[in-house]
């Protein structure tokens, strides 16, 4: 059995890199995805889902070096369940309302740039830089 998850969104904050006791780099960052749709009464509903993305090895180093808050990314990876709940990580926000984030272990990160933006566009194992004209959907 197999599953894969594809996300396109923007980073909610700068990436954070750390190292395992054996010295392997691990970088984590949050990605927001947005959806808009009209409800039954015709009002526009805006929905944002947050994903916490983890990358490992060379991919972790590259993401830490080139990504920043607001960067647009294409992520391909797998969902990682919270060991306590078997689902998303759940906590209470500052307003007391329950919140959830979905954990993703990425194996591919593509840096997406809007036309006219000047960004470093490295191409290393597991990382590709694409412009809007290259996205197939």
SSE series: EEEEHEEEE
Radius of gyration: 16 Å
CATH architecture: Beta Barrel
What is the overall silhouette?
globular
CATH top level class name: Mainly Beta
> What is the number of helical segments per DSSP (H or I, 4+ residues)?
1
- The tally of structural domains comes to 1
Describe the structure concisely.
The chain has 137 residues and is mainly beta. Helix content is 7%, strand content 53%.
Please give a handful of descriptors for the protein shown:
single chain; mainly beta; OB fold (Dihydrolipoamide Acetyltransferase, E2P); 1 helix; globular
Can you characterise this structure?
- The protein has 137 residues and is mainly beta.
- The chain has a single domain, classed as Nucleic acid-binding proteins (OB fold (Dihydrolipoamide Acetyltransferase, E2P), Beta Barrel), CATH 2.40.50.
- 7% of the residues lie in helices and 53% in strands.
- The chain contains one helix and eight strands.
- Strands 1-3-4-7-5 form a five-stranded mixed beta barrel.
- A hairpin with a 5-residue loop joins strand 2 and strand 3.
- The longest helix is centred in the middle third of the chain and has 10 residues.
């Amino acid at each position: 059995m197999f599953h894969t998850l594809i996300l396109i969104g923007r980073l909610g904050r700068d990436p954070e890199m750390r190292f395992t006791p054996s010295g392997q780099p691990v970088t984590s960052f949050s990605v927001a995805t947005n959806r808009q749709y009209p409800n039954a009464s015709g009002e526009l509903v805006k929905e944002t889902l947050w994903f916490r993305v983890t990358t490992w090895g060379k991919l972790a180093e590259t993401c830490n070096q080139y990504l920043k808050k607001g960067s647009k990314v294409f992520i391909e990876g797998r969902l990682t369940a919270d060991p306590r709940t078997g689902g998303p990580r759940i906590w209470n926000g500052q307003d007391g309302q329950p919140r959830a984030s979905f954990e993703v272990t990425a194996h591919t990160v593509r840096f997406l740039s809007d036309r006219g933006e000047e960004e470093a566009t490295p191409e290393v194992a597991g990382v590709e830089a694409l412009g809007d004209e290259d996205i197939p959907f």
